[in-house]
Amino acid sequence: MDRPVHKRDYRGKFDAVSTTADPTPKGRPRSFDRDGVLDTLIHLFWENGYEATSLTDIVEATGLNKSSLYNAFGPKEVLLREALSRYVSLRSTAIAAVLIDGTAGLADIHALFDLLWQEFYDNGDRRGCLSVNCSTELGPLDDGVAAVSLAYRSATRNAFRTALTRAADHGEIAPQFVETYANLCLTTMLGLAVVVRSGADADEVLFHVDAFRQALDSWKLS
To answer: Which burial class, exposed, middle or buried, applies to 4 when counting CB atoms under 10 A from its CB (0-12, 13-18, 19+)?
Structure first.
């Protein structure tokens, strides 16, 4: 069931989001570090969702009192948007390291899906994607969340487009399909996050990953 990552090892950068600082032990205040607080909030909202995360949970996890949190960030909805923006920034950088900074074409896309699989399988991480989770829970109700999620989708689509343009330049795929394939890659990646969040087991997740791999290889001209 396990499978190796393709050629270059991107795991250090890609794991940056999952390995941001875990929440501070309850009842233990931390010296104020904005990014550290946001990293804690990322994990909290990612694990529980927005509505199920109370201000008491946030206070206990960060070690900061309500007034300090409000003065530094604002109300709960702003805390979410700030945490989501940091998550999207970290995640987009990690994706770009594979797809934009890569030198191959389709192999770089294979590498990204290797990493998505390894992230799930190695860590038993069933949280899915914070951006997808927030957009499905709050997107229609919160313009700020919707805007951040849209920016993430646009950046990710562009990263896929860049890798696919390289694939076309290398003669792997027909150039007229770059935009179509970029949209399919994005839809598959976001859909996979929903499947993972739904509680799917490793066999089901791997079934979807392998189905996409076969589709990806079918795009090759030869």
So the answer is: exposed
3-state SS track over 163-198: HHHHHHHCCCCCHHHHHHHHHHHHHHHHHHHHHHHC
Alpha-carbon Rg of the chain, whole angstroms? 19
Q: Looking at residues 91-111, what average pLDDT do you find?
A: 96
Q: CA neighbours within 13 Å on the CB side: how many for 42?
A: 27
Q: Which two tokens stand for residue 150?
A: 């849209």
Q: How far apart are CA 208 and CA 204, in angstroms?
A: 7
Number of residues assigned to the chain: 222
Is the torsion defined by CA of 199, 204, 206, 211 positive or negative?
A: negative
In this structure, how many other beta carbons lie within 10 angstroms of the beta carbon of residue 55?
13
CB 14 within 8 A of CB 98: yes
Two tokens, residue 203: 């066999």
Alpha-helical (H) ranges within the chain are: 11-14, 34-48, 55-62, 66-72, 76-99, 106-123, 130-137, 143-169, 178-197, 202-218
Q: 213 — phi, psi (to 5°)? A: -55, -45
**What digits encode the pLDDT tens for the residues 162-200?**
999 999 999 999 999 999 999 999 999 999 999 999 988
Count Cβ atoms below 10 Å from residue 56 Cβ, excluding itself: 9
- Is the pTM value of this prediction over 0.70? yes
Q: Which residues of 166-199 are buried (b: 16+ CB within 10 A; e: fewer)?
A: bbbeeebbeeeebeebbebbbebbbebbebbbee
CATH 3.40.718.10 fits 11-218, yes or no: no
